[in-house]
Design a protein that fits this description.
Bound molecules: magnesium ion
Number of domains: 2
Structural class: alpha+beta
Shape: globular
Number of strands: 10
Largest sheet: 4 strands, mixed
Strand content: 35-45%
CATH architecture of the largest domain: Alpha-Beta Complex
Distance between the termini: 38 Å
Oligomer: single chain
Strand order of the largest sheet: 7-4-9-8
CATH superfamily of the largest domain: Nucleoside Triphosphate Pyrophosphohydrolase
Number of helices: 3
């Protein structure tokens, strides 16, 4: 086993070369492709993957440390989930505009202070989806304005409780886990400054 390295360029011999790409499904949100690629050992391989427009996740945090979570039913797994406010990036929309729009639409809050925390890829095995994480502070209550096909409940939860809910498995949506853990790290570093 090799030692971990942050320099991924060292492993350029692992790159797979795309030779042919066929779009086999085109939906309103997702596009599915079936590709042929040359693998690192020069053999031919098939790669099925989903093109996604990307999304933004927002962790809204009040001055006392409480955060805003939503509860939403997710159709593919037929379950209710605790989540942070989030949504896909519309065509020609920049990620910050998506984040502030989704926060307002889903929770009714707008934020005076925004911090870009970073991004992650939730499903690299089969999708190119990227999710940008934002911390929203200086929250001001407005009115919810959800999409017609969107139904959710908004909760105010102490930040430490949200962390406990991740470790207990009560929060098990990937973007919510990643976003809260990244924001927790950011806020802890800020406290020490
Ligand atoms: Mg959403």
């Amino acid at each position: 086993m090799k030692k971990t390295t942050s320099n991924l360029c060292l492993n350029s011999h692992l790159v797979e070369q795309k030779n042919h790409s066929e779009k086999v499904f085109s939906g309103e949100l997702l596009h599915v492709y079936k590709d042929e690629a040359t693998l690192p050992n020069a053999s031919a391989g098939r790669r099925e993957w989903i093109e996604h427009p990307g999304a933004c996740a927002v962790v809204p945090v009040f001055s006392n440390g409480d955060c805003v979570l939503i509860q939403q039913f997710r159709y593919p797994v037929q379950q209710l989930f605790w989540e942070v406010p989030a949504g896909k990036i519309d065509p020609d929309e920049d990620p910050f505009s998506t984040a502030s729009r989704e926060l307002g639409e889903e929770t009714g809050y707008c934020a005076e202070e925004w911090t870009y925390i970073g991004h992650f890829y939730p499903a690299v095995g089969y999708a190119d989806e990227i999710i940008h994480i934002y911390l929203a502070e200086g929250l001001i209550q407005g009115e919810q304005n959800m999409d017609q096909d969107e139904f959710l409940s908004v909760y105010r939860v102490p930040f430490d409780e949200a962390i406990s809910m991740i470790h207990s498995g009560e929060i098990n949506d990937a973007k919510t886990i990643a976003s809260i853990i990244r924001v927790d790290g950011f806020l802890n570093r800020k406290k020490k400054e």
